[in-house]
Structure formats: C-alpha cells, structure tokens
Design brief:
Radius of gyration of chain B: 20 Å
Strand content of chain B: 25-35%
Oligomer: heterodimer
Largest sheet of chain A: 7 strands, antiparallel
CATH superfamily of the domain at 31-184 in chain B: P-loop containing nucleotide triphosphate hydrolases
Number of helices of chain B: 7
Strand content of chain A: 25-35%
Structural class of chain B: alpha/beta
Distance between the termini of chain B: 58 Å
Number of helices of chain A: 16
Structural class of chain A: alpha+beta
Largest interface: A-B, 56 and 59 residues
Shape of chain A: globular
Largest sheet of chain B: 9 strands, mixed
CATH topology of the largest domain in chain A: DNA polymerase, domain 1
Number of domains of chain A: 3
CATH class of the largest domain in chain A: Mainly Alpha
CATH class of the domain at 31-184 in chain B: Alpha Beta
C-alpha cells in the first residue's frame, strides 16, 4: 500500500502551524542560482507559481494586491524550506502508522512524500483492504493530512496509482494489475525527467503504449533505468522497503521521596544515573552521543547534552553535565531526575598497540573535548565554524554553523580573490553605524571623523546587491585613514547620501 | 591624588615587582620549548630566541582601534597553524570578520570561533583554550584584565603549549603584565595608498633583555609585510662640505 501526502512540506507546516491554513504558502531554498521555489500550496499554484521558479519571479505574481483580492486570497507566507524537518516528521508519521502494519517505511528518494505499507495479513484486522484504506485515510485526515492511497501487488504500481490515479483511494487486484497500469502516464514509473521527455517526443505518453514497444530495444534507447522501473511496477522485480523502526527508549530514572533542592545531592544522583547509563551502553558496546536530562516535578528546561563523538568517558561526561547544570536556575525543588539516551554511536577507538602514535591523536581528542566543554557551558550555538559565502554584501559573506553540527559544507562557486579579502576589515560591526562627521569638503568628502582629521581616502568599491531580500543595498565603500592612526571601512549609502561606519582594520 | 592613594599605588607596584622578580628568578627550562616564528622576520630578529616560545602569552598594545595590529598578529597565526592545531578566536562582541582572515592565507577550516556573552565566560573560555594542546593560537581582545587572570592564562599556556595573543589598549603599557612578549603598535602614515605603515616596538620580553623597534609597511594588495628601509645617519658638517 502506498500513502501519498501531496505537497508534504506544505502539509507538514500547516499541521504544525494551523494559522497558516487558508493562506498561500510558498517554500523556497537556496540553490546555485539564488533562491527558488521548492514547494507551494494549491492556492499559490493557482496563481501561476511553479516549483523551481526563481523566488523573485514568484514574488512578482503576488504584487501589492487590492484589499479585496488580498482578503480573498489571504496574505502569502514565504518560508525557507526545511527538508530535514519534513523527513523527520514523515518518519514520525510512519511510526504512528505502525498500528496498521508492522512494516511501514518511507519511499527511497531524497525528499520523500509517500509512505509504503506492507499490509500482508494485517488487512484482515480492519475488515479487508477497503476497511484498512478507510481507517488510515480517516486517521490522517483527523491530523489535517490529505492523502491519496493505493493498494497493489507491487510498490511501483501502488506508487503510480496513488500519484496519477483518478481516485483518491484505489485498490488494484492481481488480475487487473497490468490493465490498471496501462492508462497511467509514463511519469508514474518514477523515471528521470529526461527519459519522460524522450518518450513523449515519440508520443509514448502512457505505460500501455510503452509496453507495446519491443522490450529488447528499450535499454539501448532509454537506459536501463526505464526497464527496471517498468519491471518494478509490474511486480517482476522485487523492490526493497526499509521499514522505520521504533527504537526502544533507553532511560534511567531516580525518584526522590521528597522534593530536593540541594545541588550536591542532585550532582551525586546525576553521577549515579550516569554510571547506570554507561552500564547500559557497555552492554550494547556503544558510546553516548546525545543525552537528555529531565528534572521531574519542575518547569526547568531539560538539559540536552550532545557530543562531537560518542563517548563512554565518565569524568568527561560528568563535567559536561556539571557545566550544563551551571546554566540552569533551580527555582524549585526537584522530585526526580531522568536521563534519556537520545543517540548512540560507536565509541572512540583506542590504539591498542604498544607503540601508538599518540602525538597526532591526542591534540585532536583534546580539541574535541574542549569543544564539547565550551559548548556545554556556552551553548552549542556559541562554538562555531565559519564558511565563506558567495554573497557580495559583507554582512552576508560569511556563514557560521555550530562546530558540533556534522554537516557537509558546500563550497562557493567562485573562490574569493585573496587581494579583495585583504581589503576587508578584521572587525565588522554587527550593523553599520552612522559616521560622526565633523566637517565636509567642498566636494562632499568627510574631512573630520570622530574628531580626527581624515588623511587619506581609498576607494570606492561599489556594492549593489540584495534586492531579493528587501530594499536593495547601494553602497560605495572607502577606506579612511585618520590622523590618529585608525583605519576605518566606511560606506556612502547611494540612496540617502549618508555615511556609515561598517568596520575597522584592527 | 591624595597621600593615601599614592601609598596604595606604591604598595601595589612593589607587590607586582616582587612577583615579577620571583617569576624571573625561577629556574625554568623555557629554552627547551619549541620556537614559533612571528611570521615577520624583522620582528623575529628583535626577539632573543629569533621567535616566540610555544606556551607563552603575547600582548599587542594598540593605541586606537583600527591601527592594524591584528593584521601583524595574523602573520604569526599563519606561521603557527598546522593540521594538528586550530586557531581559537574568543569573540564577545560578535564582530570578528572571518573572510578577512582568508585573505591573509589562513584557512577558515582551522578557525574555531567562540562567541561569548559575558566577561566571565570570555575569561573562562580563553583559559580553557590556552590549556588545550589542540589549540595552536588563542586570540582575544581585552579592555581590562587583572594580573591574576593573566597569570592564570600564562600558566594555562605553559600547560597547553599554544600561544595566547592578547590585544589590549595602549594605556595598559603602564601596568605590569605576565605576558612573555609585549609589543606596542604606533600607526604611521603610509607614503602610498593601498596599505599602511606601523612602527612596532618590543616593550617586554621575559627572561631576556630585549628591545628595539621596527617600521613595517603592510601592502593590502600583495599581502607583503616589509621592513621600511632606515634612513642613513646624517653626515657631519665637515665631511659633507669636504673640508
């Protein structure tokens, strides 16, 4: 059985934020050529919006409409897409749906929108396949999720039926399997767009027409993928379904006989619980990657302890927990403590040979521990990696991400020229400040800044950009050398003619 | 200044002097520690061991913000970094601009940026970074620092084996410091556009009698830091006239 949630990112956001319902919702992502639309609601699509459209073009379809029209359409909402959150929520939905079948998984694509159920034997509990479809459909509709469902003998056929079938729920028996697939478009085979275009050029628009072509000629003309997908749809080739598994929560808990506020007692209990956690981990030969510490009976936020690498080092974990606790304000007594293991992993491998080269491993290990320690005290968002972005505006030319976040970094398309970067200041003000000008020359140049004479002006470096973010930045940057020895990075806003200080060459 | 304040200041000076004497008198095997270039040969020549000692603190005293001391200190960062060490920048203001660093040949992959929200957090973070052998350079701007804090940092740097680079206002020159090397920067007017000129003076170098100053030209376009040629001493009137 295939359950398709059309426009899943939009549905996900609307189910989580009900206030978005009834308003055009447009999601965008940043690509190589700027921002573009990745998903949109049906209301927005009716205005002419299409996935893959540049965001600027999409915005032009929603001009400052008249009051009546805006009331009719609703004010459009523009949001950055979050594919990770979409996938996570779909996985949660898959786990929820395991009440209908023990084997439920996500379709195997980068941004899935469908759930696959293996319903062999479980349909009898719902009065047959029709009953099962109705139960799943009603359950998800209650959560505000619109679905299209199909049941077939093969995953590929069920996927095609749910996406391109005429009915919202379709049951295909084994006898009518091939017959039911025939009128569907070739896109129902999950083949690449270029193959679809090639087939349509030859007027092969449906699966039925495709099946009439000589099979032996298909791989050489359209690639092996087409034949594989066709066989999968016909149920001739098996297809793998990776089921989502509900992981049994690993947790230890300590309940006090009466509420406790003494920090020493709490520290001692934390240590005891952590030792128990390590025993549990030892049984699984695993290390701790992420842990939640919940303070029962209070409103204090739980502590989330995340490590760079899985660890079983008790003193280190205790220190991290203590540093986290320093940030907590215990306003009321605690009735219990619960430690929940969120993520496990393989622990650090230790060199077992006699002549280990510890000189290279030790600094790296100590650095990881330092990062974890500092992140525990200051927060994960305070320990950052920097990465250049190909954005001409100085305030957007660098991106910072938490050091503990293991994500691949995309390299900007064009490498910034070193000489140009050397003309950037080491200290860039968080927001440009109005320049305190003592006087202006006849040509309009500042002669006096912060009570110091301007000795030399180098520039300009013209930057005009950012119109897609809002008001366009039109700036002429100059390097000012003052009599007191300071070198400033200032710009003249060409829209207003005002001067701003943006950085210092510290 | 009244008499009481004068006495207190004198007592404080005596206390610091006693501490400094104790510090210089102790037999420490400092010379065994590896050396680190400042990245500028003319500055290395001013130092008694032709470079910095690993596990030490270096202070840059700047008269005004924007005087270019950071760019000079970056040369040492470039020379000190290797794949096994990273460069920690403790940035309480959130104004450190990383792209400028890449222009001076330092990969952002080796940059660990720590943004702190309070002075206590900044001091703690600097000490932790100095104590960590995985950190090659720890970089921090400080307005006010107590001697006790700098002394702790000095010990932490000795444990970690990295170098602490501190930027402090020039008025701190009148106070004693636990830093191993202390430079003072005096901005000068460059003769040409596209760069800047600074006079760098070595004020203190622990465990050695050292001093001197050099004038450097920093070229933003090429990234070169060159020693300004000294003008020859004036000839005497007698020889100049040929008499």
């Amino acid at each position: 059985m295939c359950v398709w949630c059309p426009r899943w990112p939009v549905q996900r956001l609307r189910s989580q934020q009900p206030e978005l319902r009834g308003r055009p919702l447009i999601l965008f992502v940043e690509g190589r050529r700027g921002l573009f639309v990745s998903a949109c609601s049906g209301t927005a699509a009716r205005q002419g919006l299409r996935v893959g459209m540049p965001l600027s073009e999409a915005r032009s379809l929603f001009p400052e409409a008249t009051h009546q029209r805006r009331q009719a359409l609703g004010k459009p909402v523009w949001m950055r897409a979050d594919p990770d959150a979409d996938r996570t929520q779909l996985r949660t939905l898959a786990l929820h749906c395991q009440q209908y079948s023990p084997i439920v998984g996500l379709e195997d694509v980068p941004e899935p929108e469908s759930l696959w159920f293996d319903i062999s034997g479980s349909e009898t509990f719902f009065g047959g396949e029709q009953g099962l479809v109705e139960a799943v459909s009603a359950d998800l509709a209650q959560q505000g999720i619109r679905t299209r469902i199909a049941i077939a003998n093969a995953w590929g056929a069920a996927w095609g039926m749910s996406h391109f079938g005429e009915l919202e729920a379709r049951l295909v028996s084994a006898e009518e399997h091939t017959h039911a697939l025939a009128p569907l478009p070739v896109a129902a085979l999950r083949i690449p767009d270029n193959v679809i275009d090639s087939l349509q050029t030859l007027d092969v628009s449906t699966i039925g027409r495709l099946m009439h072509l000589p099979r032996t000629s298909l791989p050489s003309r359209f690639g092996k993928e087409l034949v594989r997908r066709l066989d999968q749809a016909l149920g001739l080739v098996p297809e793998l379904l990776t089921a989502e598994r509900l992981i049994e929560p690993l947790a230890v808990e300590w309940l006090f006989e009466e509420p406790i506020a003494d920090r020493q007692v709490l520290d001692h209990v934390c240590r005891t619980l952590l030792e128990r956690v390590l025993v549990l981990l030892d049984q699984r030969r695993a290390g701790l990657r992420e842990l939640n510490c919940c303070w029962l009976g209070t409103t204090i936020e739980p502590i989330s302890l995340r490590l760079w690498r899985p660890s079983t080092d008790l003193p280190h974990l205790l220190e991290l927990l203590r540093l986290h606790c320093e940030r907590c304000c215990f306003t009321s007594a605690v009735t219990g403590i619960r430690l929940e293991i969120i993520e496990l992993g393989l622990p650090r491998m230790r060199q077992a040979t006699l002549f280990a080269d510890s000189d290279t491993e030790r600094p790296q290990r100590l650095l990881e521990e330092l990062v974890e320690r500092v992140a525990a005290r200051l927060g994960a968002g305070a320990v950052l990696r920097s990465h250049l972005r190909s954005d001409p505006l100085p305030e957007f030319s660098c991106e910072h991400r938490p050091w503990l976040e293991k994500r691949s970094w995309s390299t900007p398309e064009t490498a910034a020229v070193a000489s140009r970067l050397r003309c950037r200041p080491l200290r860039l003000l968080c927001s440009p400040q109005s320049l305190r000008i003592g006087g202006l020359s006849a040509e309009g140049w500042p002669t006096d800044v912060d009570r110091s004479q301007v000795i030399r002006i180098n520039g300009p470096e013209r930057i005009e950009s950012g119109w897609w973010r809002g008001p366009e930045a039109k700036r002429d940057y100059y390097r000012f050398e003052l009599a007191n020895g300071a070198r400033l990075w200032v710009f003249c806003d060409r829209s207003s003619g005002r001067w701003f200080l943006h950085g210092l060459f510290s | 200044m009244n008499v009481r304040e004068g006495n207190e200041q004198r007592a404080e000076t005596c206390r610091v002097l006693r501490q400094l004497c104790r510090g210089t008198g102790r037999p420490k095997p400092r010379d065994d520690r590896p050396r680190l270039s400042m990245g500028i040969p003319s500055l290395d020549r001013l130092l008694p061991h032709q470079g910095l000692v690993r596990g030490s603190l270096v202070e840059w005293l700047v008269p005004v913000d924007g005087s270019g001391a950071g760019i000079l200190a970056l040369q040492a960062v470039r020379a000190a970094l290797d794949p096994a060490h990273v460069w920690a920048v403790v940035d309480p203001t959130g104004e450190f601009h990383a792209p400028a660093v890449q222009g001076w040949g330092i990969s952002l992959e080796s940059l660990l940026l720590v943004r702190t929200s309070s002075m206590a957090d900044s001091l703690w973070t600097v000490e932790q970074c100095l104590r960590c052998p995985g950190i090659g350079i720890t970089w921090f701007h400080a307005e006010h620092l107590s001697d006790r804090v700098v002394q702790r940092w000095n010990l932490a740097a000795e444990v970690g084996g990295g170098v602490g680079v501190l930027f402090r206002p020039a008025r701190a020159a009148h106070r004693a410091s636990w830093a191993d090397v202390r430079w003072q920067v005096h901005p000068r007017l460059a003769l040409t556009a596209g760069g800047h000129r600074v006079r760098v003076e070595l004020l203190v170098c622990r465990d050695a009698f050292a001093g001197g100053c050099v004038e450097l030209d920093v070229n933003d376009a090429t990234g070169d830091v060159c020693l300004v040629s000294a003008v020859a001493g004036a000839t005497t009137t007698v020889s100049a006239t040929g008499a």
